[in-house]
Amino acid sequence: MICVGIIEEDPDSMIEIANSTGADLVELRLDYLKEFTGISKLGKIKKPIIATCMPEFEGGRFAGTEDDRIGVLRRAIDFSDYVSIELHTESRVRDHLIRVAKEKGVEVILSFHDFNYTPERKEILSILRQEEKAGADIAKVAFMPKNPIDVLNTLAAVIENPTRIPVIAIAMGELGRPSRILGPIFGSFLTYASAGRGKESAPGQLTVEELRRVMNIIE
Q1: Burial of 64 (0-12, 13-18, 19+ CB in 10 A)
Q2: Which of 43, 62, 134, 183 is least surrounded by CB atoms within 10 angstroms?
């Protein structure tokens, strides 16, 4: 599946882009919103929704308190199919959100991002196991590679999946672009693309059209 990250600053723009994209599902980066009073409008989106609100400590834009951030995600659960939250979120608020999501039938993606580094393969597998143990329905890791071995170690985590749940593993940046194409072929739950040039929610993303074209050729 191809997921497009939506990074608009107001709900109406998010709705417009989400409903016009050729992706299979959308990830709403709620941390890009200038205000949160109108997020209930996002229920008008006609594609499956991943809601996330990434904090500054993991590369996002949300600068408020953890209670406020979880409050935004708690509201988003009502119109979402998945909710994504960082593994290193304070366990008190993380576990509460996981419990609420599961009660409402919303699947939980626990994620770990490092925009500077890729750990050894053994550590990547350990992070995925931690996410499963913490209550994830889907475990996600994303790293910045320094060399091709880092990209291979990230892709190997998909193949070796040490958990009983689906995983997403991404190598970011220009060097990591092959992982966005090969990940789903090797078993990654989904891959991320941008809604268009200049709309990337993470470094190294191809557009939906580019990614779809390359994947179709490979398949």
Answers
A1: middle
A2: 43
For 26-64, the pLDDT digits (tens) are: 999 999 998 888 888 998 999 999 999 998 888 788 888
Which domains are assigned to the chain? 2-218 (3.20.20.70)
The length of the chain, given as a count of residues: 219
Please answer whether residues 149 and 135 qualify as being in contact, where contact means their C-beta atoms are separated by less than 8 angstroms. Answer: no
Catalytic entry in 46, 102, 122, 140: 140
Q: At a CB cut-off of 8 Å and minimum separation 6, what does 165 contact?
A: 132, 136, 137, 138, 139
Strands (E), the chain: 2-6, 25-29, 49-52, 82-86, 107-114, 138-143, 167-171, 191-194
CA distance 38 to 15: 12
pLDDT, one tens digit per residue, over 167-192 is 999 998 888 888 888 888 889 999 99
**Amino acid identity at 51:** A
Catalytic residue among 47, 113, 146, 199: 113
Task: Give, as one character, the DSSP assignment of residue 9.
Answer: S
Give the separation between CA 167 and CA 181, rounded to whole angstroms: 15
Residue 27 tokens read as: 């990830």
Q: Is 113 a catalytic residue?
A: yes
Partners of residue 27 on adjacent β-strands: 5, 50
